[in-house]
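Hi all, long-time lurker, first post. I run a small reading group and we've been trying to get comfortable going from sequence to structure in the token notation. Rather than ask abstract questions, I figured I'd post a concrete chain and ask someone more experienced to write out its structure so we can walk through it together at our next meeting. Sequence below, copied exactly:
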Amino acid sequence: MAYNMSIGYMPVAPVAPDWLNKGDNAWQMISATLVGMQSVPGLVILYGSIVKKKWAVNSAFMALYAFAAVWLCWVTWAYNMSFGHKLLPFWGKARPALGQSFLIAQAVLPQTTQFHKDGSLETGWINPAYPMASMVYFQCVFAAITLILLAGSLLGRMNIRAWMIFVPLWLTFSYTVGAFSLWGGGFLFHWGVMDYSGGYVIHLSSGIAGFTAAYWVGPRSTKDRERFPPNNVLLMLTGAGLLWMGWAGFNGGDPYSANIDSSLAVLNTNICAATSLLVWTCLDVIFFKKPSVIGAVQGMITGLVCITPGAGLVQGWAAIVMGMLSGSIPWFTMMVVHKRSKLLQHVDDTLGVFHTHAVAGFLGGATTGLFAEPVLCTLFVPVSNSRGAFYGGTGGIQFLKQVAGALFIICWNVVATSLICIIVGLIVPLRMPEEELAIGDDAVHGEEAYALWGDGEKYDSSKHGWYSDTEGTQGRKAPSGVTQNV
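-- Answer (accepted) --
Happy to help. Here is the structure in token form:
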């Protein structure tokens, strides 16, 4: 505290360390908050609106619970499993990220692989110009949204108690492996596999894990599979809009600085998403004669997912090409291949996360191996010699590395997710009982999304009105929990 003769004692701002760049720190925290808002409220609203009315509360709560549960696990052990000291070539050592001395120190992250003359490897390190607390925050919201995306495959039938156990287990034994392997200095990182902002770590893993978990949990009720209309299309679009705008932080924050690369990443993200949405919509019009709003949202998502692994590594023209591919290939797998595949028909992937995230994520990683521009790769990682196959040289090898990296993420998620589901299933049933499946939110949570009658049933004054047709005003009924004096 300092004393001023005119106003008395006043707080004194602490002296900032020399390494702190306030602009970079502000952008990193803003980026993290934008990504967090993609989940809460973005995907909470989207999930609660895109499902049948009787599952609105349960679907929104699955997302909200995952966001909260990941936070505690992340700072207690999972951050250092993803970005800490190496335990195995694909896994870091578990330890808390809670100490003040750790959190206020300058952030340190692996940057790239460097070769010595004797052929040995050394990881180059970067020191972003902000404290470690900002990095823990930034990476936590990425981990949280991965679990929430995975939940999209399981809506409308997973036992909420099973989900509560599944979230920390999957974060620990699946997400941290992909994050450390590709971002935290693991073997795929050293090998040179490129994943700019999570096309593999987040989207491919959530799509594959969601599909795998959906297999073990089992399908929704027959009635729900046959008809599952969104309960509020306009709110669904609100959630989708938050998801799109929040992607500026998703991809713009991954250079760990408010620099040229972050600006390019944000621009490419919007270019690819817009192109993909338009291509998906045009295909719907051409083949189904009507532009589907849900289809447009799916096209938007596949474009955002596809550009993620290469957002700051490709030029604008490549972002358009990637958008054209992400608007057509996942459309084809969802609208054509899915209907002809016995496996895809058997597994009830509620929101088609396999198509929108696994297919689009793999597509994005592979096309990054084709279109990554050498100068932009150097701008992102100064000592990198990476380039896409389109630019010749070692680009063909880079493409093969991208495919191999995807295969590792796919295999690990199938095995780890299966084991986790089996273990959870030994503790509590993975699937809701039939009585809860028939009723929905009211049976699971004792709450309903809307105090309205609807969902296709006929009007019944004894259920939907305050007055009985036969009893008149003397027999009027108050809503549940309200006492009336007549």
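A couple of things your group might point at:
The longest strand covers residues 109-115.
The longest helix spans residues 395-427.
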